[in-house]
Fold this sequence. Notes:
The protein is an all-alpha fold. Helix content is 71%, strand content 0%.
Amino acid sequence: xxxxxxxxxxxxxxxxxxxxxxxxxxxxxxxxxxxxxxxxxxxxxxxxxxxxxxxxxxxxxxxxxxxxxxxxxxxxxxxxxxxxxxxxxxxxxxxxxxxxxxxxxxxxxxxxxxxxxxxxxxxxxxxxxxxxxxxxxxxxxxxxxxxxxxxxxxxxxxxxxxxxxxxxxxxxxxxxxxxxxxxxxxxxxxxxxxxxxxxxxxxxxx
Length: 206
């Protein structure tokens, strides 16, 4: 567990700038559906940055902070419901990330710096997802709970991976914009100052 937490710590450090760009990209795309006829593309990008930092601030400086899965270092018996909610929130972020990954791969060019940076960001993000999945699942005390947690999270990731085409085929543009903004908000929960795990002295820790 200590190795996984330390590895997650370093992956988070490297993935933060990539992840921030993804959130800005999502926010800009979401706002575009509502404000495209009013503001230019550059203004929408600036608004996307502003919205992104507002979302990040909400997850870091409000009661929402305790719901962030990556900050669930000590999962006590009294916090199991909150832990399950955190896992659901963690799974929800797979979907907007999958949409962006689909867009990136569709226009991917080996000679494009943005494409290479985006692909690198998704690779680091994927490794972080695997590690967080293991950490969140191992927090449960019983073996069957750990197994169900891993299966649930993995199934959500798999469904999200194959969902972008379905998403764009059946969801209207205005609803896509709403989902993009919600997705940016959900993804913003993972932007925080990386921290290493401290030893828990609580007798209820497991």
